[in-house]
Every structure is written in structure tokens, then in C-alpha cells.
Design goal:
By secondary structure, the chain is of the alpha/beta class. The protein has twelve helices and 13 strands. The longest helix is centred in the middle third of the chain and has 16 residues. 44% of the residues are buried.
């Protein structure tokens, strides 16, 4: 029903308007999702323990869809095993000028240049106080106005305020839509940033997993640096990958829009990055695989390449909630 009726209606709207309408319907008419999609798949055999947390299944929602923790409960009710909110910044910010979100229908892709638009970490915390058992990841970043030399403080502010309300953290230095943010992926500044966060983390009564979200556009040499950084800072793992700046082999009219590309064109590259990190590190840390998962085969390839968990974003928009259940059914089929 999603692909035959709901998606065509939503895709007649501007992408950002469609997003807000979807969230309005989720919040106010959540009972309809049970009628349309049925009950999500629950099975004890789907549970996984990763970096010390128990996930009810391996399929999560990637950051960017529910930036402000508005509908994490309703999204969880669709069958996701975990929800990642954000990217959140210390202060609210409007993001980049509209229009800033584009569908590439012929490529089953999206280009966004949102620019960390969010209501700020304090507003998200108030919503998270109402959480009733959803496993939450907190994706954190810096404000656009904060220079890179002062970026650590922004991440620390978000870390401290979110700490009581999320189960794991994700350090986002890989979005292409905040000027100079990706420079923080270089070895020296990244080691400093993660080191500072880990120091704060280990001073807590019970530390929480910190993960690093990386770009798919890193070279092999840079990926080897990432492995070294994870080992040296002792963070819990990596999310591979964020959106790409590549526009290779696109055919859609909107292909020249600036911003980060997600969806099917990213499928192969994100899996390559997962496999590289897994093999070169000797499976030394967990990896959450995200990027171009539009089918059960895409998800299984990432798990087989070395991912412990997977996340959906663009595939969820194109394929609908049925994709969550299909992936979990496939995982069950492969359990021996």
C-alpha cells in the first residue's frame, strides 16, 4: 500500500513539506500505521547485544529523519530496533536556506543540504524525558557559527545534556552541509575531539558507547587513520557511512544540486567502507552500516561485510515501513 498509494501522494509534495506532513500523521494518527502495515515483527531471535546494549532487532533508523526527537516512539512502533535522533547542536539553528531537499526519482536517491537544522539540544531533552523504553542514539554536532577551533566545546555541551537520556552517542563530523565540518575528520583534530569526549565519558559512573560517523568519501589511507583513532581513543565503534559528495552515474534532473547524496547510488560504496574497516581492523570494533539500503539484499550484504547493525533513511522513504519487516524476516530465515 505504501508504494502504490501513500508514496505517490507524498511525492506530489515538496520533500520538506512531505516530511512535516508525515510526522504530523505519525503523531496524531499513529493508529493508522497498525491498520495499514499490521504489527511489526517481534521475535527474541532478532535481539542482538552490541557495545553492551541490547537491541530488539538489528534494523534502526538513521539520524536526520527525527532530528528533534519528535516522533521516536511512533517510529519505533513501526518496527525499528533503535532510533537515532539528531544531529543536535547546542543552540537552535534554522539550517540552510530553502529549497534544500531534493528527490532524485530516477536514481532512488535524495540530495540534502539541510545544514543541521534543529531546535537545539535543550528542546530535544524535554521530549526525551517522555521516553518509554525506546533505545535512542544521540547524534551530536557543532553550530554553524562555532569555529572548528572551538568545536570540542559544542560536542561536550551536547554530550553532557543528552547523557541521561540516550543510550549511545554518535559524533558527526562527516556532514557536507556545515562549512569546514569535514576538516574535523583529519587525524589530529578528530583524535583530540574524541579524546575529550571519552575523558568526560569515563568520568561518569557508567560510561556510554560513543561512535564516530564517517563519510563515504574517505580514502583508504584516511580509513586506516580512522581505525587507528578508534583504537587509540577506545571509542565503541563506527557508523559507515554518511552522505556522499560524489555524483557519479546519476541520471536525475536534480543531480547537480549541492549537498549530500543518499540512497541507492551509495549502496556499493558504503558496503565497501564497512568491509574495509572490518577486515583491516580484524573486526576490532562494531560497525553500524548505513547507506543505500533499499532491499533485504542490501541489508544482508552490509551485515555480511561486517556490520553488526544497519540503519535506514532514504530506503525507508522510498520503500516504506514494510522494508523493516522484510529485513527482519530475512535475518530470521538466515538463523540456523
Amino acid at each position: 500500500m505504501y508504494k502504490s498509494i501513500i508514496r505517490p501522494l507524498l511525492f506530489r509534495l515538496d520533500p520538506e513539506k512531505a516530511h512535516h506532513l508525515t510526522f504530523f500523521l505519525l503523531k496524531n494518527f499513529s493508529f493508522l500505521s497498525k491498520i495499514i502495515y499490521g504489527k511489526p515483527l517481534h521475535d527474541k531471535r532478532l535481539e542482538r547485544e552490541v557495545f553492551g546494549l541490547k537491541f530488539k532487532n538489528q534494523v534502526g533508523l538513521a539520524a536526520g529523519l527525527d532530528k528533534d526527537a519528535v516522533a521516536y516512539q511512533e517510529l519505533s512502533d513501526l518496527g525499528f530496533g533503535f532510533i537515532e535522533i539528531g544531529t543536535l547542536t547546542p543552540k537552535p539553528q534554522p539550517g540552510n536556506d530553502k529549497k534544500r531537499l531534493f528527490r532524485l526519482l530516477e536514481d532512488s536517491a535524495i540530495i540534502n543540504r539541510m545544514g543541521f537544522n534543529n531546535g537545539g539540544v535543550d528542546a530535544a531533552v524535554e521530549k526525551l524525558r517522555k521516553n518509554k523504553g525506546v533505545l535512542i542514539g544521540g547524534n551530536i554536532g557543532k553550530n554553524k557559527s562555532t569555529p572548528n577551533e572551538e568545536a570540542v566545546q559544542d560536542y561536550l555541551i551536547c554530550f553532557e545534556k543528552l547523557f541521561p537520556f540516550v543510550d549511545y552517542f554518535v559524533v558527526n563530523v562527516s556532514s557536507p552541509n556545515t562549512p569546514n565540518l569535514r576538516a574535523l575528520q583529519e587525524k589530529e583534530p578528530l583524535t583530540k575531539l574524541l579524546g575529550e569526549l571519552q575523558t568526560q565519558n569515563l568520568n561518569k559512573a557508567k560510561a556510554k558507547p560513543i561512535l564516530l560517523k564517517i563519510a563515504p568519501d574517505l580514502s583508504d589511507e584516511q580509513l586506516l587513520d580512522i581505525i587507528d583513532i578508534v583504537r587509540d581513543t577506545k571509542i565503541a565503534g563506527v557508523i559507515a557511512t554518511n552522505t556522499t559528495l560524489s555524483r557519479e552515474n546519476l541520471i536525475s534532473e536534480n543531480k547537480k544540486e549541492s549537498g549530500g547524496l543518499s540512497g541507492k547510488p551509495l549502496t556499493r560504496r558504503s558496503t565497501e567502507v564497512i568491509r574495509f574497516l572490518s577486515e583491516k581492523s580484524g573486526k576490532a570494533f562494531p560497525i553500524i552500516g548505513v547507506g543505500g539500503i533499499h532491499s533485504t539484499e542490501d541489508a544482508m550484504e552490509k551485515l555480511e561485510a561486517g556490520a553488526s547493525l544497519v540503519q535506514l533513511y532514504t530506503g525507508f522513504i522510498y520503500e516504506g515501513p514494510e522494508l523493516i519487516k522484510k529485513i527482519n524476516q530475512k535475518i530470521l530465515e538466515n538463523i540456523k
